[in-house]
Write a structure and sequence with these properties.
The chain is of the alpha/beta class and 290 residues long. Helix content is 39%, strand content 16%. The strands form three sheets. It has a seven-stranded mixed sheet, sandwiched between helices. Strands 10-11-12 form a three-stranded antiparallel sheet, covered by helices on one side. Strands 1-7 form a two-stranded parallel ribbon.
Amino acid sequence: MNLFIRQAKPPRDEEVASLMSGIDMGKLVSFLNEKTDLHAFYRRFLSWSQKSSRVNFSVGGDFVPLFAAGVTEAFNHFYLQNAGKPLFLLKGEYPYHRDVFDSLERPYHWYGEEKMETGAFLILSSPFSGTGNYAPEVLEILRECMEKKVDVMLDFAFVGLGESMDLAELTSFPCVKLCAFSFSKMFGIGKFRAGICWMRPPCGPLEVVNSWNYINGPAVYVASRLMEHFSFDYMSEKYAPLQREICLAHGLKPSASYLFGLGGEEFHPFSRDGVSNRVCLSPAFDQRSL
């Protein structure tokens, strides 16, 4: 079991680590002394992500791109935007939602176990946080949200870990008001808090900090350097073969996201709300020193 952890933590990739340790602080300081060109950052991201062989990252319609301090800042924005409404989640979702609502002494509800109320709001990870796989029932859930006028945020934190997805299909539903992507799980830079969200209509805290250009400049700089040197599919293509090897050796089923294996009852300590026993393989990857 010491080869696995519960937390979704990327492996320490030597090439990524080498690039990070070689960042020129003088150039970073010069970058921070100038107004951050967010439009250039978005263009670079779109050009980079569109070269993926697995993901169609076309987010069209009237969505407006905004910088976010990781997907977590987008969550906080969506909580505030929907204050007073009941929150619905699928069992197995990112436990941050549970912990925040418990801290605020606000209730949350499990989708599928309780009837979703008209005018509620829902946060949905895709690929699904509990397994790392794309859940086909996502489209059915979004259709129900359309019928019940439920505002939806799509959590794309695991996009880029290997699952094949068409994000344009998901974001075509008008009930989707916000979706967010982070570089954290792809490159292991969670503490830099680098992410992008798409919002319609743009409003509230995220819109204001972007309009003020009051964003995390070091995160923009670091994410830009990573996009220059590594492809969107770099980590998943490198580690997926090793994922399959480790899973075979330990009786795990490989998730579509290379970080995870899905286990049987012997992996119950890794249970995600009883939905799956999802283990993160990063310690096993790190032992192989790719």
